[in-house]
Write a structure and sequence with these properties.
Blueprint: E1 4-10, E2 14-21, E3 26-33, H1 40-50, E4 58-65, E5 68-69, E6 75-76, E7 84-86, H2 88-93, E8 100-104, H3 105-116, E9 125-130, E10 134-140, E11 143-144, H4 168-171, H5 173-178, H6 180-191, H7 197-205, H8 209-233, E12 237-241, H9 249-262, H10 265-269, E13 272-275, H11 281-299
Helix pairs in contact: 3-11, 6-7, 6-8, 7-8, 8-9
Length: 300
């Protein structure tokens, strides 16, 4: 008989929950909008969704958040109102008799990819999520690299230019130029109309030369960030995910070329750069694996 955990992926826009088996099978998948007022309303929505999922043989609960998760279960999530040192883990533990694990979505992504994705069985892995923001989950010799303040992987702050612009203070240099909002802002300025990153991707695919040039520039900046990761971490594989990464060769080809040009040459020849095939399932699988590990440790 398989064992299960409850997996919850909390995003700034949507909440997704599921039951995940110890073989990685996802079932009872449910989704709802993240309450705009944030705070405890998000917990209420999570509990409402989890109440609809069977609890037989469930060993733990895993929850990932779009921000920082501290060891005591407190979280900081800038895209969710009133979630600055919010006691998410403590509040959830009041409702469940089994272990509750809270972690960042970037850590969930890299664990999911190494468990059931394109990085399966790899021990030195970087998952780079490129969407509304940019962040990285990092495995070194099979272990999550967290940093002293749980901030390892905040690669949106990588410096890839020599001129400091005011927006870098809020979201970082790399994120300003390679994430979706930055791409949209660059295109809006150049094409004189309001555009999102998705709009720019569509226009580039349709042959708009200005949009194509903006995507190439963003991919160059991303490639420089990837080169820094290769030179510092010497990973076996880098997995790209998120909305911008889903643009495929509009981004991946130029990013790979730039990475090879700038990175430590011996390391980069042996580092694979691939796109995620799990998509959003990576975070659910990853937080589920972390919950399974916590449940097993609890039973010892």
């Amino acid at each position: 008989m398989p064992d299960f955990v409850l997996a919850v992926d909390i995003g700034g826009t949507n909440i997704r929950v599921a039951r995940v088996s110890d073989t990685g099978r996802i079932s009872h998948h449910l989704e709802a909008v993240t309450p705009p007022k944030g705070g405890a309303a998000v917990i209420d929505e999570v509990l409402k969704l989890l109440d609809q999922i069977p609890r037989q043989r469930v060993r733990a609960l895993g929850v990932d958040v779009p921000g920082v998760a501290y060891q005591n279960g407190d979280v900081w999530a800038p895209n969710i109102r009133a979630w600055k040192r919010f006691p998410l883990g403590g509040r959830l533990r009041e409702h469940f008799p089994f272990p509750v694990v809270v972690d960042s979505d970037r850590n969930a992504f890299v664990v999911g990819e190494s468990w059931k994705g394109v990085a399966r069985n790899c021990r030195d892995v970087v998952f780079v999520a490129v969407g509304t923001g940019i962040g990285a989950g990092i495995l070194v010799d099979g272990r999550l690299l967290r940093g002293r303040h749980e901030l390892a992987g905040c690669i949106g702050w990588m410096a890839v230019r020599d001129e400091f612009l005011p927006q870098y203070k809020e979201i970082g240099c790399l994120e300003s130029h390679a994430a979706g909002p930055g791409i949209g802002m660059a295109a809006s300025s150049r094409l004189k109309r309001k555009l999102t990153g998705q709009d720019v991707t569509r226009l580039a695919r349709e042959g708009n030369e200005a949009a194509q040039e903006i995507m190439r520039q963003a991919a160059c900046y991303l490639g420089m960030g990837l080169a820094n990761l290769v030179s510092i971490l010497d990973p076996e594989i880098i997995v790209l995910g998120g909305g911008v990464a889903a643009a495929g060769d509009l981004v991946l080809k130029v990013a790979r070329q730039t990475m090879k040009q700038w990175a430590q040459p011996i390391a980069v020849r042996q580092t694979r750069l691939v796109s995620s095939r799990l998509g959003g399932a990576a975070s659910l699988l990853g937080i589920a694996k972390l919950a399974f590990d916590a449940g097993a440790a609890h039973c010892k």
